UniProtKB/TrEMBL annotation:
NCBIfam families: gp16_SPP1. InterPro entries: Phage_SPP1_head-tail_adaptor (IPR008767). This is Phage head closure protein.
Length: 103
């Protein structure tokens, strides 16, 4: 995984509970999408646009991630080394209503 090794990006993890979105702020890092990950997702009809690495204990089965004003759906996760988790994400159409509700 290339890119910065510092967890210096602000991410908001979203979970929907009782028709309300719960937001938790965390720090992570952006990880480049590998060609293998990209093509595996494409074969499943998905489009991997971003990957974020966070500490596993902070995940809490989030459904979406807000990063830099955009909303991403978490397609799947993968454990990495040292108690970290990779969030493999697909870009959603900018959902201004969701952004207004949670931000």
């Amino acid at each position: 995984m290339r890119g910065s090794t510092r967890f210096d990006r602000v991410l908001f993890l979203l979970n929907q509970k009782n028709e309300q979105w719960e937001k938790s702020k965390t720090f992570g890092r952006v990880v480049n999408v590998s060609s293998v990950e990209f093509y595996n997702a494409a074969n499943a009809g998905l489009r991997v646009e971003m990957q974020f690495e966070i500490y596993r204990r902070l995940y809490k089965n989030a459904e979406k991630v807000i990063y830099d004003g955009s909303v991403y759906s978490i397609i799947r996760t993968r454990k990495t080394k040292n108690d970290k988790l990779l969030l493999i994400c697909e870009f959603l159409v900018v959902d201004q209503e969701l952004l207004n509700e949670v931000m």
